[in-house]
Specification:
heterodimer; A: 321 residues; alpha/beta; Rossmann fold; 4-stranded antiparallel sheet; B: 290 residues; mainly alpha; MetI-like fold; disordered N terminus
Chain lengths: 321, 290
């Protein structure tokens, strides 16, 4: 086992739902009891449908949202307890690239200031040194020096996402959360941005947490993968293991619904029925039982635990495939 | 609000479109012309005014308008034309300072309330409500009377009653902006609350406040003139339009020109600001902009 950069233990992030005063307090269980380890230098993909809690998980790890309970270790230090200067230092080492490049860059600021902001917070350096660093990082993400003095609206989606990425890596972080970084981009641009992400990870010795709902991207970029369903991780392991031998029925159906770019290929039609249940009031027992083709009495009454199905391959199911 | 739609277009096109909308609306043009003339008069007042605005000469008191004294003279023999022209400077100075002061108070309170939310928001907004509960002129009178009547206190009094609108506006804008990913990105980079509030949220609140400020400049002149008229504003001999209207009150039947000319100037400048403000608001209305 390679050494671990991020370790998450029993992380829960609940949001209170306002109802009438009489009814008891309800919570959206956006992230419910998530435990995972992200090895240093790897790309860890988190996949799931909309509303499965992927993004909340990412924001909780960065403490952009305060988790309700649980522990998060970054390089051995428990970040939920950090304050002041220590927290600031960890903030620098963990960065995020958001999904929508059209509202993740401040519309009134020059690119120079957008990228330079973090450096002004963390480093005591002169305006000239900042400019040199910005120039270097722009080159790294495939943009040019003159782009420094433009506003975000002068760029295309792909370029904006490169700028957002430049803003993250200029602080020399160790860990970057990529929250669906390519879902707002054209397919052709997606490929270029993904290649850039992959190249830079190797150069800068970064660790990624890659959030997506697109399994093809996971196949391209990830080393390990976790599948989330209604706030829980239902399956987790090496990408190849999970992709070749999906053990949770949900993962299996997700794989089956992923399009394959071959018009002649006729697949057996196995569709995921119904919609993702509410995370305010999740189904009893296994949260997937009402959509699962293999569910029985036990699934409806008893919630399965996360078990190591094969070495390094975890599944939350009573009857793993 | 209007800014998000604007930003995605190239700047020059946008400017041309604005000019086009401006030319299309005759009232806005009239408003702009009035304000430009007002500004020019204020800027060149000492050159335009033929006499001293304060020097008294009782031998020529209460003369009716003539070629010598275009608007006549008042009860102390001062040339009313010169006083009205010089009074434009007082008016401009009040508008400028009140806009800056009430604009900054409003924007700081509004952004703080909107950004922090919760209890901070509640407290600040209830204070705002308290100020809004009084008719603004009555409140301004109370402050002016309490502080003592002079130019500085007039400005303070009007500022104290007029920041509320800007506070509400910038609060709404701050609430909208604070949850945007580009603000979250700065928090992720380690930016503290003060940095985010003043360097990143506040700049986004300025444009709606600026529009509102233009719309309210007419009201500021009216309030200042009302205070002057009631003797709670600028003190003599400084020429101030409201005080001048008040001066001529006793002579209104026989010497109508003392009150009338400053009155006409107040009316025109207020009209000008209102037309311009309406025009700017319409020009920035996203439904009107294609």
């Amino acid at each position: 086992m390679p050494d671990t950069l991020i370790k998450i233990e029993n992380l829960k992030t609940y949001f209170p739902v306002k109802k009438s005063i009489l009814s008891k307090k309800l919570f959206v269980r956006a992230v419910d009891d998530v435990t995972m380890e992200i090895p240093r230098g790897s790309t860890f993909a988190v996949v799931g449908e909309s509303g499965s809690g992927k993004t909340t998980l990412a924001r909780s790890v960065l403490r952009l949202i305060e988790p309700t309970s649980g522990k998060i270790f970054f390089d051995g230090s428990e970040i939920l307890r950090l304050k002041g200067k220590d927290l600031l230092d960890v903030r620098r080492k963990m960065q995020i690239v958001f999904q929508d490049p059209y509202n993740s860059l401040h519309p009134r600021k020059l690119i120079k200031n957008i990228i330079g902001e973090g450096m002004k917070i963390h480093f005591k350096i002169t305006e000239n040194e900042i400019r040199d660093k910005i120039s270097a990082v722009l080159k790294e993400v495939g943009l040019r020096d003159e782009h420094m003095f433009r506003y975000p609206h002068e760029f295309s989606g792909g370029q904006r996402q490169r700028i957002a990425f430049a803003r993250a890596i200029v602080l020399k972080p160790k860990f970057i959360v990529l929250d669906e970084p390519t879902s707002a981009l054209d397919v052709s641009v997606q490929a270029m941005v993904l290649k850039m992400l992959k190249d830079i990870r190797a150069q800068e010795d970064l660790t990624y947490m890659f959030i997506t709902h697109n399994l093809s991207l996971v196949d391209y970029i990830a080393d390990r993968v976790a599948v989330m369903y209604v706030g829980e991780v239902v399956e987790m392991g090496e990408k190849n293991t999970v992709f070749n031998h999906p053990s949770h029925p949900y993962t299996d159906l997700l794989m089956a619904s992923n399009p394959i770019p071959d018009p002649k290929f006729q697949r057996e039609k196995r569709l995921l029925k119904g919609e993702i249940p509410s995370s305010v009031n999740p189904p009893s027992g296994c949260r997937f039982h009402n959509r699962c083709p293999h569910a029985d009495q036990k699934c409806a009454s008893q919630a399965p635990e996360m078990r190591e199905h094969a070495p390094g391959h975890f599944v939350r199911c009573h009857y793993p495939l | 609000m209007e800014k998000t739609a604007k930003v995605s277009r190239p700047f020059m096109d946008d400017l041309k479109h604005t000019a086009f909308l401006w030319r299309r609306s005759r009232l806005t043009m009239i408003g702009s012309v009035i304000i430009v003339i007002f500004l020019l008069i204020a800027a060149f007042a000492p050159l335009i005014a033929p006499y001293s605005p304060v020097e008294q000469n009782l031998s020529i008191k209460l003369q009716s308008p003539s070629w010598q004294h275009l608007f006549g003279t008042d009860q102390f023999g001062r040339d009313i034309f010169s006083r009205v022209i010089t009074g434009s400077r007082t008016a401009l100075w009040i508008i400028f300072l009140v806009s800056v002061i009430s604009g900054s108070i409003g924007i700081i309170i509004g952004v703080t309330a909107g950004y922090f939310g919760g209890i901070v928001d509640e407290v600040l907004m209830r204070i705002t409500d308290m100020f809004l509960a009084f008719p603004s002129l009555v409140l301004a009178m109370a402050f002016a009377a309490m502080l003592g009547p002079n130019l500085t206190n007039t400005i303070i009094a009007i500022s104290i009653v007029s920041w509320t609108t800007y506070a509400r506006l910038s609060r709404a804008e701050a609430i909208k902006v604070k949850s945007q990913p580009y603000i979250e990105a700065i928090r992720a980079a380690g930016g503290g609350n003060l940095r985010i509030m003043f360097l990143h949220v506040l700049p986004m609140c300025i444009s709606p406040v600026l529009v509102q400020l233009t719309l309210r400049m007419g009201t500021i002149i009216l309030t200042a003139a009302s205070l002057g008229f009631l003797g709670l504003g600028v003190q003599p001999p400084t020429p101030e339009w409201g005080a001048m209207v008040s001066d001529g009150r006793n002579f209104l039947i026989d010497q109508w020109w003392i009150s009338t000319f400053p009155g006409i100037f107040i009316a025109f400048v207020v009209l000008g600001f209102n037309l311009l403000g309406d025009g700017i608001r319409d020009m920035l209305d996203p439904r009107l902009r294609r």
